[in-house]
Amino acid sequence: MKLNSLSDIFERRLLRIPDYQRGYAWKEHQVEDFWEDILQLESDRIHYTGVITLEPVRPNLYQRWEKDLWLIEGVGFRPFYVVDGQQRLTTSMILLQAILESVPKDAELNYQSIASIRKQFIFFEADNKLQQSFIFGYEKDNPSDEYMKTKIFGEYSGSNQYVETLYTRNLSFAKKYFKDQLAGLSVDEIALIYKKLTQKLKFNLYEIDEEIDVFVTFETMNNRGKPLTSLELLKNRLIYLSTLFKDNEGREQLRVNINDAWKTMYEYLGKNPDVPLSDNLFLRNHWTMYFKYTRRKGDDYIKFLLDEKFNARNVTHPKSSDETLKIEEISDYVRSLQQSIVYWFYMHNPYYAQSSELTESQKLWLDRLERLSFRSFKPLILSAFVSKQDPVMVTKLLGAAERYNFTLFNLSQRRSNTGDTEFFSMSRDLLVGSKSIQDVVYALGQWVKRYYDPAKFLSHIEEKYELDRDGFYHWDGVRYFLYEHEQWLRNKGKQATSKLSWDVLRSNKKDHVTLEHIFPQTPDDEYWVDRFGHLDEQEQRYLTHSLGNLLPLSRSKNASLQNDSFPLKVNNGSGVGYYNGSVSENEVAQSPEWRPEEIFNRGLTLLEFMEQRWNIELGNTDFKNRLLHTNNIRCCSESEQHAGVSNPEESGFLDNASEISL
């Protein structure tokens, strides 16, 4: 078979990426490989680049392309869908555009003017300047269509309305990458790149027969190491199924709805460019909520969706009436996906652009769950939002979920899958109305009552001291707990801003600490020897890693400074110290000394806050003393009285925590 160059492929062809295709999925690795292929290619040789598969567009479809009909019926261009190879073609077009933008407008590349190159590959304009068409691009309804025209090709498209998605960011990255690579090259060097791109890269070109099932073909094709995601496969399958309802007048509208839904999903999956969301995680959690949950693992959700639920057999010749797939069922599922992705985004980005979708209390609890971990509650919470439950009860559900996760997993050290099956099933029950949100919140409270066990928390901390030797310092809940305590102190003091950043607190920068031992691990300074020298090595270790001796820092601190004396830690004389840090640091800075009794008293204060904040009981002072590992240490007896903690509920910080614990 004859190999075709890019110039051959674009010979009087109009190329569109159809609506069932994914957007531009290549990332840095694939783009770099493409560039290196061209760069390393000798000018007198060719490079086989892969397969391009095209599907002729039927007249009843291209008749809708109002802006392109003049080029098809008047000039004689043949319209095609790009079924396979769109990633390579799109990359070629981005590089071509970058080339044209990297040379003077009056330059010539291989005896071609910039205007003639644009007319051949990108933008064809009639002599009268009235009719204009893009030679290569996406179908109109694809969310990347406007972005490709305006931001990549740099043309005015009419509406100039584009939506940024994960795919459009890939387009933007590729163009910037190519422009950066071309920036240091001369016009002659760029002309050589252009020649290699348009003449020396060779493709196998296939025009598939109309009898071939293009949807099935698309599902089985491979795109140079970038297989289709589950969300992409599902979109293709649903569009394919829409074509099978031949006698149903709603099939065209269903296809429009599918495209709209996927446009929305890709918009919200990539809405926060700093933290793009996983399409697979969204699809799996939605499946758990929307369909009856099973214990099957792995890729069970996509196997169910493609192999069992949304397949051609269930439309054309179902095995039983129960398996019959109706167009309304597909439509309802698509609508649910589109509605759910908005809430899914704000579940993970509660404070993004001050969303009006959530109440302030909901934002607070969602932020806590994001820091602590949602664990198995995502489908249940998603269900509460999608089913439009009472906002006050949704807030209680969020608080109950946070309490459940902290008390059962961070304190009681229960197995990580405790309650999973029940809560997954509840998400479906809540969605369809067979269980009320009041029932769900009550059930969570009962689970805590049944499985919370402070003795297991004590055993876990003892194990940390025996095995890790680091006690509370390596307790998996210590940073979350101390951050919550910091926020309570800030709220209690009515401080508007917080100096303690969660991102800083959880960071693990080499040779720096964000969680400090006030009494240091290496207490060589005379200050520490004078106050702790009477204790043996084990007693000192117990106190070093006791909860009351751990302090969250508002800024990362060099590890070598941890051994400073307490007065220097409070204020080093250079404007840095506890006195100028987080609220927790300010509180510790008020203490004139740091001795064993200060560690003990602060530890008890923190444990009392824990009891109030999560509405639990840890035990009497003796139990807390054992938990803190301050028992039997001189100057840390029960006779040492401490001031205690103000009731956290008085500050309003707990946000209905007592009500949540039903």
Automatic annotation (TrEMBL):
Residues 471-608 form the GmrSD restriction endonucleases C-terminal domain. Residues 639-662 are annotated as: Disordered. It comes from the Bacteria. Residues 7-238 form the GmrSD restriction endonucleases N-terminal domain. This is DUF262 domain-containing protein. It comes from Marinobacter zhejiangensis.
